[in-house]
Amino acid sequence: METITLEKLAENFQAKIDADIKIEPNDWMPENYRKTLIRQISQHAHSEIVGMLPEGNWITRAPSLRRKAVLLAKVQDEAGHGLYLYSATETLGVSREDTIDDLHEGKVKYSSIFNYPTLTWADMGAVGWLVDGAAIMNQVALCRTSYGPYARAMVKICKEESFHQRQGYEIMTNLMKGTALQKEMAQDALNRFWWPALMMFGPSDAESKHTEQSMRWRVKRYTNDELRQAFVDATVPQAELIGLTVPDPKLKWNEERGHYDFGDIDWDEFWQVVGGNGPCNKERIEARVKAKEDGAWVREAALAFAEKRKMRENQ
Amino acid sequence: MNMKSNEWPLWEVFIRSKQGLNHKHVGSLRAPDAEMALQNARDVYTRRSEGISIWVVQSSMIVASDPTEADALFEPADSKVYRHPTFYDLPDGIEHM
Ligand SMILES: [Fe+2]
Ligand SMILES: [Fe+2]
Questions:
Q1: Which CATH class is domain B10-87?
Q2: Are B2 and A76 within 8 A, CB to CB?
Q3: What is the pLDDT of residues A19-71, one digit of tens each?
Q4: Which has the closest alpha carbon to A32: A180, A174, A216, A203?
């Protein structure tokens, strides 16, 4: 009896997905769909929050008040993105604190790109232009994802992201109009961030163990390789326009395909960084744990204050 | 939902984007009390002039209909086509009514 019901539920669920009807928090969903979403959305939330660290690093050293105000606004936006996504994760029945502890205990990942250091001011340009650019590719596709709260968070995030990429590109453009040293700095930032940015789309389709099921559930709408190609196609002309050279000798426009061909990604490096051995993995998690621990007394005090006030009001 | 005792309560946020429109649900957040919930809602959901008024409601106060009973709940409305103006025949010559 019970198996028939489950089968029927699963069938109805897939029919809804196929008809592009969004799934909402209290609707029936397969346990694995729930798990996949919790993993993906929480990873996404962590990426927004950990992603604040490499840029936060430069707020006090921004070269002008304008740049400082912009960078501050961008980093604040990323905090907001993290919050929308933690809220979306919570609609799936997990607690926010557990989700955050999972990150701190190394049980879940965040985007590998944030394990690279931001060494010069030009890195703020490269990060905004390339990292946010790659994130936007991914997030625009996710605006049509099948889970309602995730899709709605993505729509909001996409609206806010577009200035992030522009401000980064503007930094690069200005540096490329500057002295030889400034140009060199911009080129160096591109050299260091180009390949890690391509890795942001995740393993190639052949290697990606979650892609097939995620596509069937319409959690993902495009494969990693499709999005990576779209990013390369969009970004290469932007680099050329301001005189930057993409650090890939195999990069070439392929007339027949209507796309750029590009060189092989160093997947060993990717798996090393994902596995915790990137240049900044340890530092990033330590910073997050410290923030949580150092802020604990504030959260406790706010809660105690709220309770005390409630008691007084009830007297 | 497994809420830990030291976690701030969850609030649902509703925003009126401009005068004349309804408050609309935009998302949720955690805050220790109503005042902080409003503050946080302003920071999280109105960084680009998205609103002129905010409501916050503690999520636990919301009573929702059960999605598994949606058919029984809403079917009666589906079967009453005569509630719509298109159900009625009008003689030729009447264009607007
Ligand atoms: Fe973001
Ligand atoms: Fe961003």
A1: alpha beta
A2: no
A3: 999 999 989 999 999 999 999 999 999 999 999 999 999 999 999 999 999 99
A4: A216
